[in-house]
Amino acid sequence: MKFRQIFLSMFIHFLLLTLLHASDPPLSLDYYKSTCPNAEAIVRKEMECAVLSDPRNAAYILRLHFHDCFVQGCDGSVLLEDTVTFQGEKNAPTNLDALKGFDIIDRIKNKLESECPGTVSCADVLTIAARDATILVGGPYWHVPVGRKDSRTGSFAQVETNIPGANDGLLSMISKFMYQGLSVTDMVALSGAHTIGMARCTNYRDRIYGDYQITSIANPIAKSNLKTLQSTCPAAGGGENNEAAMDYVSPNLFDNSYYLLLLNGEGLLNSDQELYSSVLGIETKKLVKKYALEPIAFFEQFSESMVKLGNITNPETYVNGEVRKNCRFMNT
Prior knowledge:
Radius of gyration: 20 Å
Number of strands: 2
Oligomer: single chain
Keywords: Calcium, Disulfide bond, Glycoprotein, Heme, Hydrogen peroxide, Iron, Metal-binding, Oxidoreductase, Peroxidase, Secreted, Signal
Family: Belongs to the peroxidase family. Ascorbate peroxidase subfamily.
Protein name: Peroxidase
Organism: Artemisia annua (Sweet wormwood)
GO cellular component, one term: extracellular region
Shape: globular
């Protein structure tokens, strides 16, 4: 009975969101064709410099984009700094110490303001940059529809309710993705972004002192990796910001090895391993196996799901939104 109620609630959320976004102004591929034709080239050049200087910057930008879109839609709200009269999203517990790469967006925006002032929104900058970040570490290409406006609001509270947590169970994750209009397939494919980037000890402690040994295949590599993880993330506390690669096989390469690790029971986060090991994950388990065996299928679905993610817009921005001059602050 409880499961039916949860499923019904998720379905209603999904239906309401579908109706909401059906009325959103359409994005287009040529939105800046006449007003800022070099916009994508500028973003790409700056991202090339950023990833060349540190491959981890790719993961930072991809994570920023995800955290932006899951709160109020892809409206650049995650980029806003707190002020005396405004509480933004950066310092919400889930985002605090977890998000980086703001300086990269600043550099891109400064270049765009020099080329075509007041034209390209910060929300579009972040969406394009996330695509380029993926490509630059070996991931797939996709066309990015543009035309978003920047929000003049943010939601500290929605960060905690909307963004999936490291220790979320499968039903909780499905609910949060469906609330955004994203399917179970989208969820499994987008989780593949964890093939790059790092996680903090505070987010994987429960996993490595929990069922990691139970889910992982008894082999020397898994045991050795677990020992290394525990040496930098003590059970009793401390080292909260110590980091480990979510895909220790190829941490700076966007590939499908993340799913191979899940098959071996070596997902770093509880929420990752849930996709394969949860008794409720009949569909998610099949998808994990598929993407582990078929890297092309993963790339194709990831591209499709990233377009869907990027198309989650904030309807309010088309009424009272703006194109910020500085991505950290609203225009005065």
